[in-house]
Amino acid sequence: MTAHTTLAAERFEADRPRLRAVAHRMLGSLSEADDAVQETWLRASRADVGDVANLSGWLTTVAGRVCLNMLRSRGRRPETPLDAETADAAGFAAVPAESGDPEEEALLADSVGVALLVVLETLAPAERLAFVLHDLFSVPFDDIAPLIERTPAATRQLTGRARRRVRGGGAPAVDRARQREVVDAFLAATRGGDFEALLALLHPDVVLTADRFVIPTPGPVSVSGARPVAEGAMAATGRARFTGPALLDGTVGLVMAPHGRLRLVLVFTFDEGRITAVDVVADRERLAGIEVAVLDAPAADVTGLDD
């Protein structure tokens, strides 16, 4: 009888950062990602790894399967309505509480890309797994296919569809680059509390509108003028750490997505390099009608697989 070969804890720890990164992109939430990595360790520690040639690849697929199960379980749980959460007076929905370090969560979301986490959240679990494992972590289709009970060819097609969702379409590259500059500057000024820099980005007659789901009011709220709009943005500095640039129906805007869950978007209108209008949307029906895509979409690690 062949001896049972167990995985050493030190060997697992060497792969923990990668597994955590996979789980975070799959689940969007750092606390859930840590739970998934712990479950991966429990499964791996009980398995016989004597015949496993590529332990890192094997652990990645185990983590992928754990995350897939968590996503499917999440889909069977009712969501908390947005209006059941508190909101702040600045016009940005409050960040829902979650266990874990919020600063680390925000920094990690920033490094990954808030928009990417938002778009991944819109994908079906199998699509999400295929895209994350293949395009972001170079796992071969042959290894992904058994996890989602598809052929490698079908897995390739599934990944291609997910990739197109992530990339989106929209404004010409030149217009998009200029919009990106303005939106990045808006976000930087908001995060940094630089009132004068923010003011310079706004047209004197800029109008900000926020739907009734953004703040607890019977109807939409409208604010006119560069200074009042800038003051409102400054008051929402704490929310900006969970906010990142994205394509919204082809135009560069901002998405706020604490723990990977889309809460609201800022849709901008531009004129000659300045912002003339800001539409803050938190209504779930309206959010569902906005196509969110990634500005700097990650390219596939293996070329020629767009079909």
From TrEMBL:
Sequence ranges assigned to domain RNA polymerase sigma-70 region in this UniProt record: 12-77
Keyword terms of this UniProt record: Sigma factor, Transcription, Transcription regulation
Domain RNA polymerase sigma factor 70 region 4 type residues, every copy: 115-165
Record Gene3D superfamilies: 1.10.1740.10, 3.10.450.50, Winged helix-like DNA-binding domain superfamily/Winged helix DNA-binding domain
Record-linked InterPro entries: ECF_Sigma-70_Domain, NTF2-like_dom_sf, RNA_pol_sigma-70_dom, RNA_pol_sigma70_r2, RNA_pol_sigma70_r4_t2, RNA_pol_sigma_r2, RNA_pol_sigma_r3/r4-like, WH-like_DNA-bd_sf
Domain of life the protein comes from: Bacteria
Pfam families the UniProt entry points to: Sigma70_r2, Sigma70_r4_2
Subunit structure: Interacts transiently with the RNA polymerase catalytic core formed by RpoA, RpoB, RpoC and RpoZ (2 alpha, 1 beta, 1 beta' and 1 omega subunit) to form the RNA polymerase holoenzyme that can initiate transcription.
Family under the similarity heading: Belongs to the sigma-70 factor family. ECF subfamily.
Protein name: RNA polymerase sigma factor (Sigma-70 family)
Species, as recorded: Streptomyces achromogenes
